[in-house]
Design a protein that fits this description.
five-stranded antiparallel β-sheet; 2 helices; globular
Length: 115
């Protein structure tokens, strides 16, 4: 019996986008498609993501690709606070692109220190 692995990220309530090392958008989950509907949604797949970013963002993406060091920050957009986490993904040990998670977070959020 063959078992198909589900796309665990497809219906997650966080936006997930993935580009390859040439900055080509290769994956969007449903939330990402909906978030970018005005810009073309799923039609953005296969497009170079550099055409729709400011220079500061391009510099950060280049740094992630070159150093492998993730970037994280919070934003407020349309009244919703979000944690943005951008990190390299690897294939065969080499950086193959960047994955970005955009995760809605509450205005007040507990923080725990664990050891």
């Amino acid at each position: 019996m063959e078992f198909e692995i589900p796309d665990f990220f497809k219906t997650l309530e966080s936006s997930i986008t993935v580009c390859d090392k040439n900055y080509i958008l290769i994956y969007m989950n449903d939330k990402a498609v909906a978030s970018y509907r005005d810009a073309g949604g799923e039609a953005l797949l296969g497009q170079d993501i550099r055409i729709c970013h400011r220079q500061a963002s391009l510099d950060k993406m280049k740094a992630i690709m070159e150093t492998g060091i993730p970037n994280a920050y919070t934003i407020s957009k349309n009244g919703i606070r979000k944690l943005i986490y951008q990190a390299p993904w690897r294939n065969g040990g080499s950086i193959a692109g960047i994955v970005e998670f955009s995760i809605p977070i509450p205005d007040e959020m507990p923080h725990y220190v664990r050891s």
